[in-house]
Amino acid sequence: MALSRRQMIQLMFLGGSAAALSACGGGSSSPSLTGGSGNEKPNKPDPISPPDPVPEARELPLEAGPLADIGPLVDSGVDGILIPAGFSLRLVATAGRKPVSHAFGYLWHPLPDGGAVFPVGDGGWVYVSNSEFLPGGVGALRFGADGEIVDAYPILKNTRINCAGGATPWGTWLSCEEIFDGKVYECDPLGTPQQAQSYPALGLFKHEAAAVDMETASVFMTEDEGDGRLYRFVSTGRTSAINGADGLDLANGRLQVLEVSGYENGAYMEDLEAAREIHRVNWVDVQSPDRPQSQVRNDIQNSTGKGAPGTQFKGGEGIWIQFWPEGAQQTVSGYEHPLRAVVFFACKRDNRVYALDVDNDLIEVVFDNAQLEGSGEAGFDDVDNLVVSPAGDVVVAEDGDAMRLMVMVPNQPARILLQVPGGGSELTGPAFTPDGSRLYFSSQRAPSGLTGLMKLGRTYELTVPEAFR
Fold it and tell me: Per residue in 203-240, pLDDT tens?
């Protein structure tokens, strides 16, 4: 049986203790103090057995954040949206209208989708939002330190069906095209569309969302296909990003897919009870990374009769990484590394949320609809965009008629954070300010335009009381 590093240290410590005991007379042949002759055989210490193996964890040591304690929902007074008591809501942008009067003809984009918040040096922040439209792009709302909108402008134009994306640690936004040969575009939240840059090395596929881990130089990406994969791009190094900051080189690296042990070559984790427990994973280089990956999978299937590399994830959606600093990292029993970074990602076709331990290469399902049975709440109807709050709450949007933002409580029933009654739309783009005091989101097909007759979306701001952040 292979011993972990921790177990080896324990054995070394115990072995050293036994040697010290012998040196100090634990096995002496000297005459005893009780009158022995001194010719008796020396007493030998009992052999020390190695410690029992540390049991391997069956679940990651994840904890709920403060939003798990929210109470019942009440009417916010804004568009009939229901929010927890003590919270407040305001409308900040409507598709087809100016977010601010001096926006020089700039209108908020149709079908707002994935988004993120970026701090600004003056104490304010920028909320960026994709347009899941054709042509697509990205719009930005700049807020002052007092929370008022001071500017609105585009940072990406003339792309195709921009769904979600991800913020980078160096302060840029990765906007993803949700089409079969979709690309990832890097945008500057304080910049212009002319600065945006596409990166085919991140793969050509139906991109949904992205999340970056600097320590492993990795970009994790979901794919919105029924037989989709979870991807990882491992960069070859650092470079100057489009905003001048020190970022990962997104033009050079290896594109890989995740395989769960026992579920290789397109297999699916059908058994939900088994999927709720930890499984080991590894990463496999994709074939033909310069081609649309759905076509590559079909070619492999047709030529070999078996599935392409990678475990199947049904309709990958939102993705976000939660980090823990040194001193706050929990031990994962039986595994080498403490919990430093966990990738959470949602899959809409089976309504699951997965958690991937980056350093230990472990995965498990932490939410599924069966956890809502008996809670009085309807099951999730297509989990979608996902965000992790600064306080550690995993919040998932719903692409279905119930139209809820849900707080995921690992391996327990979820809680409703807010709800937009009426259906006919979906909730998109949840993103917190760095202090957790505000949460932005959109109702993608809410009434819009000057008359409200077009259903192209509205964007809102939820204010979070201090007790819940």
Answer: 999 999 999 999 999 999 999 999 999 999 999 999 99
Give me the sign of the Cα torsion angle 284, 200, 187, 138.
negative
Among 116, 129, 198, 213, CA closest to 163 = 129
- The CA distance from 62 to 411, in Å, is 9
Q: Can you tell me the distance from the alpha carbon of 121 to that of 104, in angstroms, rounded to the nearest whole number?
A: 24
Nearest to 220 by CA among 258, 163, 264: 258
Of 207, 210, 202, nearest in space to 235 by CA: 202
* pLDDT score for 46: 65
Q: 82-84 and 73-75 as β-strands: parallel, antiparallel, unpaired?
A: antiparallel
Contacts of 130 (CB under 8 A, 6+ apart): 112, 113, 114, 115, 136, 137, 138, 162, 163, 164, 165, 175, 176, 429
- The yes-or-no verdict on residue 103 having pLDDT over 70 is no
Say which residue the tokens 């139906």 belong to.
206
**What kind and span of H or E run contains 425?**
none
Question: Do 334 and 57 touch, CB atoms closer than 8 A?
Answer: yes
SS3 label, residue 444: coil
352-379: pLDDT as tens digits: 999 999 999 999 999 998 877 766 677 8
